[in-house]
Amino acid sequence: MPLVTGDTVEECTACVSAIYDDFDFIDKNGFILAQVDAIMKCKTQSRPYPDFLPESETRVYLRDYPDYAYDTAHGVIFNVTTKQIIQPVHGQVNLKGDSVYVHIEGLRACTPKPIYANVSVDHISRDHTDHRLENLRWAPASLQCKNRHTKESLDTSAIQAKKDGEEWKTYKTRKEFVQSLGLPYLPSCANLSTAISNGVKFHGHRVRNLTPTGIGQLRPIPASVVGIDGYQATEFGGYIRRPNGTYTHGSKESRCHYYKINIDGSPYKVHILTTYAFHGSKPSPNSQSNHKRGAANGPADARDLEWVTRSENVQHAHDVGLNTSSRAVVAISDNTTKRFSSSLDAVRYFKARGIKVDNSAITKSCNGKQKSHKGITWAYADGTTTSRKRKFIDDE
Question: Per the domain annotation, does 154 fall within a domain?
Answer without folding.
Answer: no
